[in-house]
């Protein structure tokens, strides 16, 4: 039998209450929402927090909406939004098809019904899908803490496997994704290879492109489970920016991403296979995203 170590349990009733509880119990306390990653780690004694702060009732940081931000319209996703809610949100999928592409291949309906978008990001698992998606989208993450809110770019949020910039006592509040100035749907796509449906990725790639005047004005490429620093294929992005999105360039971008990623061998495959997979998936995701332009 797998049994977690003893811990204190408190249920937060508001964001302010949650922050107060995190301060009260100190750095050995953690928040819990869906719990699909945390609870198995606790049962295996890989994680042993002294206190769990339940934030399931925090409607302040739930929901999905479009609103005007400082730099224009933004899709705002509350950290407590469930995966199933994001998958069912037609407005989110219309602006960013990559979100629905990714959510369809995350785990199974049971996990999607309870797991949260914020929980996935804060877990920072190298094989987790949404980290690469929001890195490709160049989203901003709003962090709430005892000293007020601060905004962190998604590409700066992840500092290593299972590590983020969240300090003790802080809480992820929402994810903000900028919508193109004219409101047209962003061209984006997500491609994933796994061993069975809903499994962790052997490798996956998210691509976001903005085509202006026949050339790529902006490109975002996020890599999952392929050893990319901060989940981003920056060299491939730089190669494509300002160039027309023809097939030869997309294939070369895949080759560049493959050369610069650092996959590790595990039960899902050797390094050479994963590096080859990185190149193929980058090309496929870019091709699919470009095909959605207009």
What does this structure look like?
The chain has 294 residues and is α+β, with helices and mostly antiparallel strands. It folds into three domains: 8-54, 2-Layer Sandwich (Uridine Diphospho-n-acetylenolpyruvylglucosamine Reductase, domain 2), CATH 3.30.43; 59-178, 2-Layer Sandwich (Uridine Diphospho-n-acetylenolpyruvylglucosamine Reductase, domain 3); 187-291, CO dehydrogenase flavoprotein, C-terminal domain (Enolase-like, domain 1). It has helices at residues 15-25, 38-43, 83-88, 90-95, 97-104, 109-114, 117-123, 129-136, 154-157, 234-240, 247-260, 271-291; strands spanning 8-11, 29-32, 51-54, 64-69, 72-78, 140-145, 148-153, 158-160, 163-164, 171-178, 187-194, 201-212, 215-224. The strands form four sheets. It has a five-stranded antiparallel sheet. The protein has a three-stranded parallel sheet with strand order 1-3-2, with helices on one face. A hairpin with a 2-residue loop joins strand 12 (201-212) and strand 13. Helix 10 runs antiparallel to helix 11 (247-260). The protein starts with 7 loop residues before the first strand and ends with a helix.
